[in-house]
Amino acid sequence: SSSTAPAPHGGAAERCDEEPIWECDPELRTYWFRAAGPPREAMALRALGALIGFTALSRSLLPVAFPPVFFELLLSGLGSRCTSSAGPTMRPRVFGLPDIAAVCPAMARSLERLVEYEGADVAELFVLDWPCADELRTDNRAEYVHKYLQWYFKERYADQMGPLVDGFRAVVGASVFLRIMVEPAQLESILCGAELPVDVAAIRSGATAEDWRGGGQEDL
Q1: Position 62 pLDDT exceeds 60
Q2: What is the C-alpha to C-alpha distance for residues 188 and 142, in angstroms, rounded to an integer?
Q3: Among 61, 74, 173, 201, which is disulfide-ready with 169 (CB 3.0 to 4.6 Å)?
Q4: 90: left (phi > 0), else alpha (psi -120 to 50), else beta?
Q5: Is 88 helix (H, G, I), strand (E, B) or coil?
């Protein structure tokens, strides 16, 4: 249950007027935003964003308590070149089922069933609480789910993600390193200590052996 998982932070960053800011997914044991809370919640989220920023500048580590897309959204708020929307064309990030599966597997399974379901009663069986809920038809299931996912990540939690990113940016917004060099998985590693595989081939390609007295080149 969510009560046994480690909370991301205590105090004001975790609760506001006794209403939890986060909800824990029972399968992944990671946290994601709840629905928008009272106005004071923005202050708590801004403080949490600043705390995450200070963590990036120190040797402290956060619990591994957020899905990968959380770190991507943090970097995107800095104007990072290393998020999925970066590149010469700066195309908007397109979210898909793997993204929602990393936040809420149960929701991802429901959306997959929606896309696969061909019955005429699809709109009655699959009811989603969002502004375009009445647009679902049997001939637009995939497009409907695609549109829902963009809304889910870009709009539904904008009131929560906005203040959190503001706090994060206030601390590390001037960091060229984070904006240019760090990818979302690397930011997770910096903040949480998550282990990433070492790209040995990349290291070798950029290395120069000097005064090497070992065996053959294969030993490097």
Answers
A1: yes
A2: 31
A3: 173
A4: left
A5: coil
Report d(CA 132, CA 220) in Å as an integer.
Answer: 58
pLDDT in tens, 157-166: 999 999 999 9
Model pTM score: 0.77
Phi/psi at 23 (nearest 5 deg)? Answer: -130, 145
What is residue 176's DSSP assignment? H
DSSP state string for 20-67: ESEEE-TTT--EEE-S---TTHHHHHHHHHHHHHHHHHSS----S-S-
DSSP annotation of 109: H
> Residue 154 is encoded by which pair of tokens?
């870009």
pLDDT average, residue stretch 76-105: 82
- Dihedral (C-alpha) 62, 68, 74, 79: value to the nearest 10 degrees? 140
pLDDT of residue 171: 96
Strand, helix or coil at 70? helix
**Does 206 score more than 70 pLDDT?**
no
Q: Which two tokens stand for residue 126?
A: 């699959």
